[in-house]
Design brief:
Layout lengths: L2 H20 L2 H9 L13 H30 L1 H25 L2 H15 L2 H10 L6 H26 L6 H20 L24 H30 L3 H21 L1 H8 L1 H18 L8 H25 L5 H27 L3 H25 L14
């Protein structure tokens, strides 16, 4: 089967999956705080706390799922695991729709946890992209995968917002239908593949932290993901507090950020890799994002140029770092390696949501500046391990790309 057809199918499945992740964003707050919906009533607990629980339980599910699904795909095959997890996601959305129709908070929470666990299959999409090398350059594949992910985060909220007037459960039924379409795409367009796990391969991605060569990468990537999530989670708060933005203005700023990501991912990533090399390009992306973020609170509320710089930086390192780990991750399966990256992102999400919220009580600018400094620390650690310590020696076929 043509590798380009496989990549196209993987991109389509990713677009559907990520759009589904973002679909509830404009729905949950009105559902719990404005509509007086029965689902916002549960044992007298304030609706804001119920909403917080729902917002937290979903990334917790992704954290749990991504830790095992990538490694599972190494043992059982990418296509099979992707089929089963997308079926699980379909069931999760259907249960969410049913729970909303019944006004059943407990069922809704359980369905969101199930959906999150199954959405951990994004690590499988990354593994498929890595497996296509050398027929399709890994950096090119990861760049397109990242651009598709960014597009999903634009499409999902738009669709969710448009569907909400038709009924709170409608969007979740549409999500279930879209995921069922994705199952069909997987079945028709992805080849039957064989397990690729090495003997003794781990059953979950965090087991890789025991490897002394992987552990430093995990540490610096966790710093970078703390920085990234610190930005994602608190820039809307900063825009409200220091620019007086409403939801429409925040959406416009988000479109600017995401457009920069998509443009750089589709046009510039491969050029940078050819001209600078893989590791220097990764450092450029990390540095560009982190420096712009650290200086953002000092800019008197100006955000356009920093957002463009941060979007470009995110797009660059999201293409380079998975490629780097795929090439230098030793004998570990690509599913387990990519699962580690997704798990680390989710871990950073949870930790920054907790710690950043406390720091934001003092000043939201502290969260953004600290996030930028954490990103710079990650860039320094990457540079130290790559250039000085040679922690991750290049494989023979990749020596000229670093």
């Amino acid at each position: 089967m043509s590798p380009h057809r496989v990549l196209a199918a993987t991109l389509l499945v990713t677009l559907i999956s990520v759009s589904g992740i973002a679909l509830p964003y404009p729905i949950l707050a009105p559902l719990f705080l404005e509509m007086g919906h029965p689902i916002s009533v549960f044992y007298g607990i304030p609706p804001k706390l119920l909403l917080g629980a729902i917002l937290a339980i979903y990334p917790l599910g992704i954290l749990l799922g991504s830790n095992v699904i990538g490694a599972w795909s190494d043992r059982a095959g990418r296509r099979k695991v992707l089929q089963w997890t997308m079926l699980g996601t379909t069931l999760g959305y259907a249960l969410s729709a049913w729970a909303v129709s019944r006004g059943d908070f407990a069922l809704f929470a359980l369905s969101r946890l199930l959906t999150g666990v199954c959405e951990g299959n994004l690590s499988v999409a990354r593994a498929i992209a890595a497996d296509l090398h050398p027929k399709i350059d890994r950096t090119r594949a990861f760049s397109l995968l990242s651009a598709t992910t960014y597009a999903g985060y634009l499409v999902g909220p738009v669709v969710g917002g448009l569907l909400l007037p038709l009924g709170a459960s409608v969007a979740f039924w549409v999500g279930a239908g879209a995921c069922l379409v994705a199952v069909g795409v997987i079945s028709l367009s992805l080849p039957r593949d064989k397990p690729v796990a090495k003997p003794g391969g781990g059953r979950h991605s965090l087991a890789l932290v025991a490897d002394p060569k992987i552990r430093p990468f995990f540490g610096l990537y966790l710093l970078l993901m703390l920085a990234t999530n610190g930005f994602y989670e608190f820039y809307p708060v900063w825009l409200v507090e220091y620019r007086g933005f409403d939801s429409i203005a925040i959406a416009q700023a988000t479109v600017l950020l995401t457009s920069a990501m998509i443009l750089v991912a589709t046009t510039a990533s491969m050029v940078l890799k050819r001209r600078l090399g893989l590791a220097p390009s990764a450092l450029l992306g990390m540095g560009l994002f982190s420096l712009a973020l650290a200086l953002l609170p000092l800019g008197g509320g100006h955000y356009v140029l920093p957002f463009i710089a941060m979007g470009a930086g995110i797009a660059i390192y999201n293409a380079m770092l998975p490629t780097y780990l795929a090439e230098r991750g030793g004998d570990h399966g690509q599913g387990q390696l990519m699962g580690l990256m997704t798990t680390t992102f989710c871990l950073g999400n949870v930790l920054m949501a907790l710690g950043g919220s406390v720091l934001a009580l003092l000043d939201t600018r502290y969260v953004l500046s600290l996030s930028g400094l954490l990103g710079l620390a990650a860039a320094w650690q990457f540079s130290r391990h790559h250039y000085r310590l040679n922690t991750w020696p290049a494989p023979a076929q990749a020596e000229g790309q670093s």
